[in-house]
Amino acid sequence: MAKNLAFDYEELDADIRRKDQERIETLEAKKGILAKILLGLVMIGPGVLVMIADNDAGGVITYAQTGAAYGIGFFIPALILAGFIAYVVQEMTVRLGAVTKRGHAEMIWGRYGAFWGWFSLIDLVVANVLALITEFIGITLGMGVFGVPHWISAVVASVVDALILLVLRYYTWERISLWIALGNLVFVPIALMAHPHWSEVANAFTNWNIPGGFTPVFLFVVLANFGTTIAPWMLFFQQSSVVDKGLKVKDIRRGQWDTAIGTVAMVLVALAIVILTGTVVHGLPNAGDYSISQILTVLGHKLGPTGEKLFALGMVEAGTIAAIALTASTSWAMGEAFHWPKSINMPCSRAWKFYVPGIISAIIAAAVVLWPNAPLGFMNLAVQVIASIFMPAAMMFLILLLNDKGIMGIHVNGRWQNISAFVIVGLLVVLNGVYGLTVIFPKL
Fold first, then answer.
1. Max CA distance (Å), the chain
2. At residue 198, does pLDDT exceed 70?
3. What is the pLDDT of residues 402-423, one digit of tens each?
4. Are 431 and 96 in contact (CB under 8 A)?
5. Using CA atoms, how far apart are residues 294 and 308, in angstroms rounded to an integer?
């Protein structure tokens, strides 16, 4: 009976994917500019979603606090570099998903066994729950600007997140998520409202220095920024999304363009937030210690109620799209690891095991945020740092899989892709190591 049910799940999933693939093939067969534009829009999805969701509520708060504390200087070039790093990492998941047609968790369990499978799964689930906490922090604080009590915001956000995951099938889920992700661009006009000094932005590239010196606090913020740019959940999310979308080897190039477009959008928004708070908040007394609530207040004074409310809406949007991605990532990974149904194409009534882990993780995160006197500001930065600490191990699995000719064939990593990947791992290890030393030996 269990085998028959599994067969039914696979047949239903395959049937839905065939219909999605037929939509793509129909557009491919058509000629003309309009058909090409429509095909491009249909192919956009996993890459844009993972990158925009990476500009989550925790990331928005981190970028805002970074700009307030350190201004425009150091972090403008650093965030552009982080964008290149994110693309290098995520492009590998496109190839891995399109070639193997398997999710990241499934590949690790199948190739390296239960021990490493459990290691990577626990790593992911813990990181996802912690990241979800930051999403609910952003949602509740953002809605607080409009006078909505935190508990109502948390409950409504949890329900919306659950409904989007439970009710929609992959193609519709992806399209709705993309419309929500579009709201992330609201931070660009807010930054323009601040009338930044563009000469200072340009000078950041010619006079790249560490403001205030090389301190443990500065390293903590650097790690937080890297942690919000590349995180373990992104690997699992995009590869599973590529599989659920039904991308094939011939679609790899389109998947790379999708990821590149998402990277540009991610970096643009991150820069806009740092430029905004670097212009409006930096330089005020003790600006480096400002919480996001204080930053919102300053924005209200300097830009008026419109600026403050737009920023608050941006936080709500960032938390919402990231929560959607994180819950899906958790469900995909758990489904792949335990051979449950593992597709958003599956109706809840027939594949409830797939949906439960993601929804439970969101409920846990919402409950933590509502805990009285929880240190939300510190928790947000700490979550980003933890993500950067977990990332090297996740990267090593990815690199090993991408260099396995038995899996990837001609699509294995090239020389420069491997060099770039190992440089990224080395950079994260060095940053984490130096930060650890400064904490243990503050006078070093």
1. 69
2. yes
3. 999 989 999 999 889 899 989 9
4. no
5. 11
Region at 21 (left for phi over 0; alpha for psi -120 to 50; beta for the rest) = alpha
Cα(357)–Cα(362) distance, rounded to whole angstroms? 9
What pLDDT does 1 receive?
42
Instruction: Return the amino acid letter for 261.
Output: I
Contact of 222 with 431, CB cutoff 8 Å: yes
Q: Which among 8, 127, 70, 52 has a CA at the least distance from the CA of 279?
A: 70
Tell me which residue has tokens 């499978």. Answer: 117
The candidate with the shortest Cα–Cα distance to 237, out of 321, 332, 146, is 332
The CA-based dihedral angle spanning residues 224, 226, 232, 236, taken in that order and rounded to the nearest 10 degrees: 130
Report, in this order, helix, strand and coil percent for the chain, each rounded to 5.
85, 0, 15
Domains and CATH numbers, the chain: 44-440 (1.20.1740.10)
Residue 48 near residue 258 (C-beta atoms within 8 A) = yes
Contact criterion met (CB below 8 Å) for 98 and 242: yes
pLDDT (tens digit, 9 = 90+) per residue, 13-32? 556 666 666 666 676 777 77
More confident residue, 200 or 269: 269
CA atoms of 68 and 71, how far apart (whole Å):
6
- Residue reference for tokens 């913020």: 221
Give the H or E element holding residue 2: helix 2-29
CA–CA separation, 231 vs 428, rounded Å?
11
> CA 59, 64, 69: angle at the middle one, nearest 5?
125
> Taking a C-beta distance cutoff of 8 angstroms, is the pair 208, 304 a contact?
no
User: pTM here?
Assistant: 0.87
SS3 438: helix
Q: What one-character-per-residue DSSP string does 322-343 give?
A: HHHHHHHHHHHHHHHHTT----
Q: Which residues are CB-contacts of 405 (< 8 A; sequence separation ≥ 6)? A: 412
What one-character DSSP code corresponds to residue 313? H
Full DSSP string of 272-310:
HHHHHHHHHTTTSTTGGG--HHHHHHHHHHHHHHHHHHH
Q: Find the length of the chain.
A: 444
Q: Residue 286: left (phi > 0), alpha (psi -120 to 50), or beta?
A: left
Nearest to 241, CA basis, from 297, 301, 174: 174
